[in-house]
Write a structure and sequence with these properties.
eight-stranded antiparallel β-barrel; mainly beta; disordered N terminus; 1 helix; 10% helix
Length: 237
Amino acid sequence: MKSRLFLLSTVSALALAGNAFAADLPVKAPPQVVAAVTSWTGPYIGAHGGIGWLRAKQTVSDGVFACGLEGATCDVNTTGAVFGGQLGYNWQQREWVFGLEVDGSWTGLKETKSFAPAFPHIKNEKIDWLASARARLGWAMGDTLFYATGGVAFANFNAGWTQIGGGARFQLDTTTVGWVAGGGIERIFTRHWSARAEFLHYGLGKKTATGVTPAGTYTTAFRHDVSVVRLGINFRP
């Protein structure tokens, strides 16, 4: 009987000692969750849409086709829809992001305007499409990128004039090369998708052409500038 009591008391003492030792052991902290770091590096493809403003000028060598005053330059200004797509690639180094992008846009920029100097006439302007190849330089703040962009621009325009009630008419349909610059803000909202808002200004330069009409030979100088505000969405594989 005594041996049994001794055995039970020994087991109880050992159990109490084990519990006390376990209570003194350090508790292991749960693993820390590390937030995913956003990276802008990689390719993307997307679409855009917005509104454009065209500012065009025409100057005809013969003053009779000017805009009310001999030698004056006729302004033809209009707005229209712009939409298209873009393709690019970004490289990120710390907060700095460098990228290359090409894009193309169809535009609804067109206008016809009448003038009434010595011989009344109609001038027409139309930008069929815009395209560009640009570099981008941005500053990333996590999921948000602020950037500036610039490069070479291309456009096709169809423009000219027609004498009202006469035989003189001149029309030019050609592709021109210029420059483009602007900036914007882009934000990643899922792993594969980002959205952006940007402004671009296209300086399409001056193009001069000579045409022979029944009423004589005329040289016309065309100048075009386009500003675009557009929203875009990009897919990142």
